[in-house]
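Changelog entry

Holo records now carry the ligand SMILES as an explicit input line rather than a separate metadata file. Below, a converted record for magnesium ion, shown in the new format.
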Amino acid sequence: MFDNLGSRLQTVFSGLTSKGRLSEEDIDNAMREIRRALLEADVNLQVVKTFTARVREKALGADVLSSLTPGQMVIKIVMDELTQLLGGTLSRLTLSNRMPNVIMLVGLQGSGKTTAAAKLAYLMRKKGKRPIMIAADVYRPAAIDQLEALGRELQIPVYRGESDDPVTIARDGVRYAVDNMLDLVIIDTAGRLHIDDKMMDEVARIKQATQPDQILMVIDAMTGQDAVTVADAFAQRLDFDGLIMSKLDGDARGGAALSIREITGKPIKFASMGEKPDALEEFYPDRMAKRILGMGDVVSLIEKASEIGEDSEYSDDDAERLMQGKFTFDDFLKSIKQMRKMGGLGAVAKLLPGGEAMKQVSGQMDEAQIDRVEAIIFSMTERERINPKILNGSRRARIAKGAGVEVVDVNRLIKQFDQASKMMKQMQKQMDPGGGKGSSKRGKRGKGKQRPPQKKPRFGLPGTNFPGFN
Amino acid sequence: MSWYDKLNDGLSKSRERLAGQLNSLVGRGVDLDDTFWESLEDTLIMADLGLEPSEEIVSRLKREVAAKAFTSVEQVKEHLVSAIADEFETVGDPFKLNPVTVLAVGVNGTGKTTSVGKLAKQAVDEGKTVVLGSADTFRAAATEQLDIWAQRADVPIIKRDRGADAASVAYETVEHAEELGANLTLIDTAGRLHTSLDLMRELEKVQRVTRDRSKTPTFTVLVMDATTGQNGLIQAREFNKALALDAVILTKLDGTAKGGIALAISKELDIPIVRIGVGEDIDDLRPFEPHEFARALIGS
Ligand SMILES: Nc1nc2c(ncn2[C@@H]2O[C@H](COP(=O)(O)OP(=O)(O)OP(=O)(O)O)[C@@H](O)[C@H]2O)c(=O)[nH]1
Ligand SMILES: Nc1nc2c(ncn2[C@@H]2O[C@H](COP(=O)(O)OP(=O)(O)OP(=O)(O)O)[C@@H](O)[C@H]2O)c(=O)[nH]1
Ligand SMILES: [Mg+2]
Ligand SMILES: [Mg+2]
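Structure line, unchanged by the conversion:
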């Protein structure tokens, strides 16, 4: 699924031709894929519509950073907007000076409230709080047992009360906390449907009776289109303060986070990443944005590339030469440097133009080998680097000795270089179908409609489409 | 309020628009414009059917409407309902077999334990002998929870302490069921994400041990929460890969979620939806009716 999206985007974006500015057509093409990605991630359709409209607006006429292709620029705009919408920066839990602080957890059935209560208590105790949990779910079979078992495990007290009325239990529990000098109360409530008036009324009365500092809604990351309806109803009734998104340890893309944020404006405060008590983490909007878009790798690269920007290892001349499929061991070295700037081999070797082919070659090289490659190239003379054909047996033996490796290592590198060289030529063909300078050998195409040579060829990210990267 | 009414509660804007369109067309013959098709597609997407299936249904319906010369909007509506309903696999309800052993599996919190309780009650009402096994030895108070359901349904339960080997609980359950000559043996398992390889392997073992020990046929039923979005299909695929699923129970249809992902699951995996959960009470379990489900999907 992720791969599909990645390659679909590649197809769309490799067709983008505009330089400098994004054209309306480029943007519309990209938006179609973005819409698809968001829907696959379960972002609510209405939210997808308003979101893409807004992004489209922003993207229209935006300047394309020189380090990015137009397609990548669109993704960058989408990402920035997504991150912004998801809250920009971290939204921390804010508690008052009051004693005790009260946190109430609410949500649909099975979303993860009871386990979240234990996780929160565990987390807050580590921060110096003395928590108590209140078992205010009198409906679900063994709900109280569940919370008590968790409390026992973590040695955190649980108040269960005598009453069978959740409002009374909650109120008494807070009083119990005061009497026992416990400074944080976490109320676990029963799961309820947002359309169940009686139950929604009950939880509103618990709020009334306990005046929580924070009401957190727990929402399952796997939730589909309905998430907005649910969250909106809870927001209307309870005006909750934030969300805990649970079950993020799975592979659900979690588009509900975006929908809820857009519809209710409530921040997501925690990500729950498992069943165990220590599985509660702070929520990072930027990570979530990548996850929702479902192309974390591409996006990370775009971010890095836009950070590096003009700080590329390659000059325009280099790029021009490479477009013609001529490259050297010096390029190999440069690409290693570039790659390191961008987070290493693993991060780069995915989802880029020609990604599949690249992955095959990159599979032959791990990070440790890269060091060896560097050493080998450093042992070559200038001439050897520029003209690898002269590397005969004795030269290879000398290089091996200089680099402190075996001759087979040198042989292997040269073989990889040749392979990559072939791959490069093929990729140039694929990526420049319009017929720039580099593809002149393939004869004429689209008679007389040849594009003028681009000043700086755009076939992906700088430095990623070189032999050494592979 | 009947479950069907409940299903229809909380009409989304798009569905209202669709309904409005369908109605406004009455009397002026079948003349469906782009807005109609668009709001139909929106409705299906918002029912969690998924983008591609929604597009497919719409384009198929477009073709058929063009070819079949419908004379009334009612006909178009009914055709749409049938088109959706017919996509479901309908054969293979394990609960029709007697005797039979059924494992309830699924991701966390979908309603496995509750559904097992409801199924037990239904079988008892049909005069069957039922045995429950609590093979969720992981989650806090999971066994206590199933124990309460066993009491409610008035059936015996096999349970062990938390942390015990899940497969051996399953083994003992089958053994006990055999002694009693049970008609239905229901084994509840711990919720787990399909992405957790260890836990999936543990579940494979539970299934293998149950199958090997059981003289009655063993079926594996995926319990899916109707609020689940597109990840539901991935879950179903992964559970199917590990366990070869036989059927699906779709829970929590008493909310406003439409459970559209069930269609893709049933179609792709060729397995039927055999029950739906429509509440938290012991009687809130219903047979799955494809036509009613399809009607609720489009809100007609
Ligand atoms: N994998 C995973 N499982 C989780 C997570 N959070 C909760 N769960 C599991 O989800 C299931 C439901 O969690 P509970 O805490 O019982 O949910 P609840 O909201 O209290 O449920 P009700 O009280 O019945 O409404 C349990 O199996 C939990 O272990 C999470 O972040 N990841
Ligand atoms: N509204 C509604 N709630 C349901 C339905 N089925 C189950 N539930 C509720 O969903 C919550 C989780 O149900 P469980 O039966 O504990 O789910 P589970 O799959 O066994 O959960 P784990 O074992 O923790 O993975 C409980 O609060 C149930 O009461 C249903 O059809 N409708
Ligand atoms: Mg609970
Ligand atoms: Mg359970």
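Spot-checked after migration. Residues A 113-114, 137, 140, 143, 188, 191 surround magnesium ion (ligand 3) (CB under 6 Å). The first helix of chain A runs from residue 2 to 14.
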